[in-house]
Design goal:
The longest helix has 13 residues. The relative contact order is 0.18. Strands 5, 9, 10, 11 and 13 form a five-stranded mixed beta sheet that branches. Strands 1-2-4-3 form a four-stranded mixed beta sheet, with helices on one face. It is of the alpha/beta class and about 200 residues long. The chain has three helices and 13 strands.
Amino acid sequence: MTVGTAPRLADLTTLGVGGPVARFVATTSEAELIDAVRTADEAGEPVLVLGGGSNLLVSDEGFDGLVVRDTRTGIDVPDHSACAGVTYTVPAGTPWDDVVAEATSHRLYGIEALSGIPGSTGATPVQNVGAYGQEVAQTIATVRVWDRERLRVRTLPSSTCGSATARRCSSAPCSPPTTRGATPATRSTSARPGARRRATWCST
């Protein structure tokens, strides 16, 4: 875990706007991520879990609390020859476009139209990113979260992730700074064998 000099949010967002933060932590493991959020919650400190910063507009007044960025990356690549299908497990900090590139390189379909969308993998279940008739809600298998109310890790199946228009996990994986919800951990993608194999995923 890196506790760095508090940057301006302008340095952490793609729009390049936003004032200073009171405290900034970059976590490198699930345990560090949970500890940072839990410790801030216990102290009554506002928390902002930040992904790629691509869908965030922040006031020049900044954020008077803890900003946490999950820096874990990577894709757990399964045996693509499995007859029962394929499931990827992806840490929340992984750039979303890396997941699309991995799936399409193995001719998995279902998220190929979502190429080029900026941001982190952990943020996509919250935003339910979509384009050209595809949305991530169609391919999510599970989302692993830290439940800030129940103080435990939970794995949420896709069936619990909201309505048809914007399937947002009921525990709010990237909850607003003043709201205790859940903090994302990992997700997966599965595919059926054949000429066109479908991609689904789980987030951790």
